[in-house]
Amino acid sequence: MSFIRVLFVLSGKGISGAEYVLLDTLKYLSDIQCCFFINEKNEKLINEIKKSNISDKIYIGDLVIPYSRTSRFITAPIEMLLYRKKLANLSLLNRIKNDYDIIYLNNTIEVLSFPFEFFNARVIAHIHDMVDSIRPAARYLLKERLKKVDHIISVSDAVKNSLVKIGVEERKITTIYNYVMPEEPTYSNSIKIPKYISLRKIRIGFIGDMIKRKGPDILAKACLELEKKIEKEIIVDFIYKNYDMKIVKYIKDISIYGKNTNYCLLGAVNRQNLLERYKEYDLIVVPSRRDPLPTVILEALKKRIIVVASEVDGIPEIIPEKIFLFKKGDYKDLADKISRLVSYPYGYVLDKMRNVLDFYDNTFTKERKINKINHLFENCLRK
Hints:
Layout: E1 4-10, H1 17-26, E2 32-38, H2 43-52, E3 58-60, H3 76-88, H4 91-96, E4 102-105, H5 108-113, E5 122-127, H6 136-146, E6 151-154, H7 157-165, E7 173-175, E8 201-207, H8 216-226, E9 233-239, H9 245-254, E10 261-267, H10 271-277, E11 283-286, H11 295-302, E12 307-310, E13 325-326, H12 331-343, H13 346-363, H14 366-382
């Protein structure tokens, strides 16, 4: 049996949903030989790859990507060009440039920073970002780089539309939805819908970076509005790894005005403990201002937990029921949606949640994603 040799390129800038979802997926791809190239040395990412038992071939470029506030402006093309030349001059890349059938770039930063044209291989770019929102210089550079790849995977139709908006050819793009690994069996009768009306307190989870794009400030402000609508204690847990100190300070400052709201800034939690923590919440709130396809929603729905989320970008592609969606950036609408959810008859909420889960279970599946990627690999090599 002949295997497709694939080099998976990861920036090493961090480890997030994009990396975890990739590692979960690779366990099930058929007839491929995996190898990893990491631009920047990242011990946590390396350990996660080793734990997955997918491949023991991990190459490290060990060159810091020049990605900063400055690199997003007019200097981005020059900085990235010089960086790619440095990588291409590594003796390591010279040794392996003819060893692979496909180069798989796992996100936007990898497309910008990796010298894939140096390889005698087909190239697939997997885009997880709303690219129409990045700075003009980086956006132009990305469009030019994507002209040179053979095919593009977008994580949602919203991402696909954002790529088309900046000038990428639509025919080159395939939307392939992510999925999350089942940590336990899930059944429709295990939906966690508390009888909100009888609760003395309601526990809300926010899981994501504490940055403006993710909207934790919207949730914090919404809870003060929610106090006026429901007579319950409100507990909000903020779980995050990366943060903007201005956002953290804002939430600390606003917390003094909460009479019945307790804001808990919990910081980072390891992935396994995080997956267990979902069960502690009466609902998860995803108040993003932009978001291509939030892994936190996929994980929460896998755990059968209700999600209230911003109606923006790829989020409505996961949640088809309007009672769980609020207007982007509108903290008053978020408070209103939660207060209505608390007051609706139990059976009504249960029916709506079942609709969401039926759609989720049929759309965000391992089998669907694996089949599409295998098919894409085969087609890519036929060209």
